[in-house]
Write a structure and sequence with these properties.
CATH superfamily of the largest domain in chain A: Peptidase S8/S53 domain
CATH topology of one domain in chain B: Alpha-Beta Plaits
Radius of gyration of chain B: 14 Å
CATH class of one domain in chain B: Alpha Beta
Largest interface: A-B, 67 and 46 residues
Shape of chain A: elongated
CATH topology of the largest domain in chain A: Rossmann fold
Structural class of chain B: alpha+beta
Largest sheet of chain B: 4 strands, antiparallel
Oligomer: heterodimer
Distance between the termini of chain B: 23 Å
Structural class of chain A: alpha/beta
CATH architecture of one domain in chain B: 2-Layer Sandwich
């Protein structure tokens, strides 16, 4: 019986680690109580895969969040009172018929700063520069007089987007991709929400920040960056483009390494990316944060550390500076791994600023990042600019889009391998596209 | 040896997900018929993350040696799945 299971001690055991989390004393449900808590997440542990199969073939209690046949474990959300009172007969059945043990599931704290490293996040300081300062710097607000991204899709290929944030109104959500049984408008890290906010956040519905293209439509492509996921995402984006949508994709992932990577046999992502480009998708990539990893001095513009497909001329690769136009010590340098091969060009194409101690939406809250937002935070600026251009002038080709962004970039008087064509200038790019439209009409 | 490739399993930065899964495989078939057979088999033996009919590939979590053999017998290749990194600051 369930009551026996709960009270007998041998079948239901509070796990030792479940009584506290690893670093904060926070309980699994997130309360900072440091003491007793009411757990919600349980593990149902079966003695073997056969028992797991047999049990999971029939109805199981609660909401199943993780199934691991390998480990013969389910992770489920249960009402603990149901266990204590024996209110759910299915729990007793699992114990009696299948030899299951039910224990509290413990939880590690996610590093609160995601991929940027704990020490790079600083206490909130509202005097620090933010995305607002970046928009001023790149001339986005001036460009909005002629277009704000409406009618254009920005696909954010990242850790997901926090759908509870008002920066991403449901009315602007044009679609999504996620793995099976996942929810795309959630963010497993916060990084994807940052990139989405920079590219296409909006204050219109109560958000804290506008992004570069605040009226663009958004597609959340939530991934853990596996090759198969990325290939499927780009197949999906290709379908969107083929259906007549203007699809601009922002991608802030790569290989964090200082040495040239190669791809293994069976790799599909770059093939899918190539197919999507042929279908009309316009992709932007972070140049990478590999300069220091490659042994480059902060003031040097070599060696190159822009890897793989980021050398392609059919993608735009974006590095980053601070607001004083100095290259960040980590921003990957050109000319790119494959420079000189057919269909490549010297990289980075451009740079975009991410401020020291810069405040930005990261997941569900504003965070201050000591050393900028990485090339991750630069790439969505350029993608947002592309959306602005397309909202002002329909039917721009990919090459024309890239050309406008490169030619209008502000020269920082740095070597090309650092700055590319310079720092993006939305107002200048918008003026250029409008001028070319007028001249085409006349 | 290519970066991020140990010949056995996906590599890359561990992500903070509440997932006990630490291995991801790609299953690649050569024909649609094989793909359908393999897909139907795998769906009852592992968690499937991605089904890509266009590329005749599946992305799945752990497969036992027996399951791998079955998949291969059904006409598909089982490969370790490459994984990219988020851009992290050094």
């Amino acid at each position: 019986m369930a009551g026996d299971a709960a009270g007998g001690g041998s079948s239901w055991e509070p796990s030792r680690t479940g009584t506290r989390t690893m670093t904060s004393g926070r309980s699994p449900d997130g309360r900072e109580d440091g003491g007793a808590f009411a757990p919600k997440r349980f593990k149902i542990m079966f003695p073997n895969a056969q028992a797991f199969d047999a049990a999971t073939a029939i109805e199981t209690p609660g909401t199943t969040l993780v199934r691991s046949r390998k480990r013969a474990v389910l992770s489920v959300d249960l009402d603990p009172r149901a266990i204590e009172r024996g209110a759910d007969r299915r729990i007793g059945a699992l114990v009696e018929r299948f030899g299951a043990r039910i224990v509290e599931d413990f939880r590690y704290d996610m590093e609160p700063v995601g991929p940027f490293g704990h020490e790079l996040f600083e206490p909130e300081d509202e005097k620090s520069p933010s995305l607002d300062n970046v928009l001023d710097r790149i001339g986005a607000r001036e460009a909005w007089r002629h277009g704000r991204g409406s009618g254009v899709i920005i696909a954010v290929v990242d850790t997901g987007i926090d759908g509870t944030r008002p920066e991403f109104s449901p009315s602007r959500r044009r679609g999504a991709w996620q793995t099976e049984q996942d929810e795309p408008w959630t963010d497993w890290d916060g990084h994807g929400t940052m990139c989405a906010a920079i590219a296409a956040g909006s204050r219109a519905d109560g958000g804290l920040f506008d992004g570069v293209a605040p009226e663009a439509m958004i597609v959340a492509c939530k991934t853990s960056f596996y090759d198969g996921e990325l290939a499927a995402i780009y197949d999906y984006l290709a379908e969107l483009a083929t259906s007549g949508e203007t699809v601009i994709a922002t991608n802030s992932f790569g290989f964090n390494t200082g040495t040239m990577p190669t791809l293994p046999p069976g790799e599909e992502f770059t093939q899918s990316l190539d197919d999507a480009i042929a279908a009309g998708v316009i992709p932007f990539f972070s140049a990478g944060n590999n300069h220091a990893l490659a042994g480059g001095r902060p003031d040097a513009c070599s060696p190159t550390s822009i890897w793989l497909h980021k050398s392609w001329s059919s993608v735009m690769s974006v590095g980053t500076t601070d607001l004083d136009d100095r290259m960040w010590y980590y921003s990957s340098r050109g000319p790119g791994q494959f420079f000189g091969a057919p269909e490549t060009n010297a990289k980075p194409d451009v740079v975009a600023p991410t401020p020291k101690r810069g405040r930005i939406l990261y997941g569900d809250r504003v965070q201050t990042l000591r050393d900028g937002w990485g090339s991750s935070g630069a790439c969505p600026q350029a993608a947002g600019l592309a959306a602005l251009l397309h909202s002002a002038s329909r039917n721009l080709s990919r090459d024309r889009t890239f050309d406008l962004i490169r030619r209008s970039a502000r020269d920082l008087s740095l070597a090309f391998e650092c700055q590319g064509h310079g720092s993006i200038d939305c107002a200048a790019a918008m003026n250029a596209v409008l001028a070319s439209s007028k001249s085409a009409i006349s | 040896m290519p970066f991020g490739w140990n010949g056995k399993r996906s590599s890359g930065t561990a992500v903070p997900m509440a997932e006990p899964v630490d291995t991801r495989y790609k299953i690649k078939a050569q024909t649609l018929d094989d793909f359908v057979k393999v897909r139907d088999f795998v769906r009852s033996h592992a968690r499937v993350y991605v089904t890509n009919e266009r590329r005749l590939s599946l992305s799945v979590d752990h497969l036992s040696d027996d399951d791998k053999s079955t998949v291969e017998r059904l006409g598909a290749e089982v490969l370790p799945e490459l994984r990219y990194d988020l851009e992290r600051l050094p």
